[in-house]
Specification:
Elements (H helix, E strand, L loop, with lengths): L5 E3 L18 E6 L9 E5 L7 E3 L20 E8 L6 E2 L12 E5 L15 E2 L1 H9 L4 E4 L13 H8 L3 E4 L9 E7 L9 E3 L2 E4 L3
Parallel strand pairs: 5-7, 6-8, 7-9, 9-10
Antiparallel strand pairs: 1-13, 2-3, 4-10, 4-12, 5-11, 11-13
The protein binds N'-Formylkynurenine and zinc ion (2 copies).
GO biological process, one term: L-tryptophan catabolic process to kynurenine
Protein name: Kynurenine formamidase
Pathway: Amino-acid degradation; L-tryptophan degradation via kynurenine pathway; L-kynurenine from L-tryptophan: step 2/2
Length: 209
Amino acid sequence: MSSRKLWDITQRLRANLPVWPGDTAFSHQQTWAMDDGSPVNVSKLTLSTHSGTHADAPLHYDPSGEDSAAADLAIYCGECLVVDARNTGAAIEVGDLPHLHSADRVLFRTYDSFPHDAWDEGFTAIAPEAIQWLAVQGVRLVGIDTPSLDPQNSKTMDAHKAVLAADMRILEGLVLDDVPEGRYELIALPLPIVGVDASPVRAILRELP
Ligand SMILES: N[C@@H](CC(=O)c1ccccc1NC=O)C(=O)O
Ligand SMILES: [Zn+2]
Ligand SMILES: [Zn+2]
């Protein structure tokens, strides 16, 4: 058994999970219940594709983009750099970015303490120029602990558009409270749901060997 330390960086999917204003609340309903004499318990889920910790598929911001089922899983697992981006203001700017020393994947921590119980409408975004700069450095995947790369009131989705232009991929809603800055192995795989624009992921970081 490997003794490499694991960090679960996934929000719990549960009733009262904060969701994007106006989006579908998370819930589960029992379809069959052992309490009612069924041999097993079976449930159904009601949820937004952007519930909790999730991977945006390009279809979210490009009408002809790939869906969650088409995801190249190699992008979602491998070495990553966790960057402490607390105290950066409304958006992470180029000047906030550290030297990457070659990283294919970068995850940004903006919260001291992740807001598990309330929607934070003033979350930190990422400036489109910062996305472009990351792309030039060779970054293929950008992750953040906030619900979106763009501000909540954005109508133009400039950071998502910059991701599209550079053919990068996105993880949102990560929980990085317990993760010191540094390098890790990331595993965060979208479900192969055909025709949809995003998928919840179980995201973990693992100590490098
Ligand atoms: N950009 C956010 C989500 C987003 O924009 C959104 C999610 C659910 C319902 C509405 C949304 N945006 C509406 O303008 C994301 O990528 O998860
Ligand atoms: Zn999303
Ligand atoms: Zn997004």
